[in-house]
Amino acid sequence: MDPKLAPAPSLLSTHQDLSAQELKLKGFKAYQVDTAVNPGPTYRRRDFYKVALMTSHCTVHYADRSIELNGTSLMFANPHIPYSIELHAPRLTGYSCLFTEAYMKENDRSESLHQSPLFKVGGTPIFHLSAEQAAYAQGIFQKILAEQATEYLYKGDLIRTYLQLLIHEALRMQPTESFVQHKNSASRIASLFLELLERQFPIESPEKPLSFKTAQDFAEPLAIHVNHLNRAVKEATGKSTTAHVAERVVGEAKALLHHTDWDVATIGYALGFEYASYFNIFFKKHTGLTPLAFRKAV
């Protein structure tokens, strides 16, 4: 695989053992970044927002757009918007904090994070920092790390306040807009589309059905027109976006029929089908069997 098309690095220090379950329970996890972009522990990234302070020369890729970062930059990442990072230095350094929306809203009834200018679809949540701004942001991250290691009963509230300080500092700035076009945008778009598709699986609960089911659903978080997405995916992979989605949904349907005791209607709903009859028609079209017949056969 072309390293420029590799999935986004986890921005984790390779010596740290970070538990996804611990992160889910506490709602946040901060760490200092120092990595050669070897893959770190894998999280269900759709669950976690991220604020990162990056001090290395790198390029962040969003669909068919890129932005080069050289110096200190502050980045806000939405779990539903995929991106990748191309490193131009020996190591990626800085700080990062992962957190859930529920954690940030625990004592706050404000709007959802994905509606925030820093996290919403189509935004540009990357900020080049001056020396003064960089020192301020680094100080906040160091306070978060120090507080995370204490036994203070209300450290979660204090860390939430520090994160809000970073958010408000960014809201006062103008985001970086110096995007450039990729020469091979079709491959980049296809790579991010496939990553976004895969992020939805496996289905762990009927209460969390598929978010993205149509080409338009995928085009919106990638901030490109649906026709542009369809052309890019077809050009890069030889298959349509619809074919990729259908194949992945069929594969997940088979796994759920085989490994769970959920009824057919529940499985269909979890996979984005409002009515069981629609799921039956879809499954039989792609497998030649009804869901019940497939379940009995395995």
TrEMBL record:
Tagged with keyword Transmembrane: no
SMART domains: HTH_ARAC
GO molecular function, one term: DNA-binding transcription factor activity
InterPro entries, per the entry: Homeodomain-like_sf, HTH_AraC
Keyword entries, A-Z: DNA-binding, Transcription, Transcription regulation
A matching Pfam family: HTH_18
Stretches assigned to the HTH araC/xylS-type domain: 187-297
Span of the signal peptide: none
Annotated protein name in UniProt: AraC-type DNA-binding protein
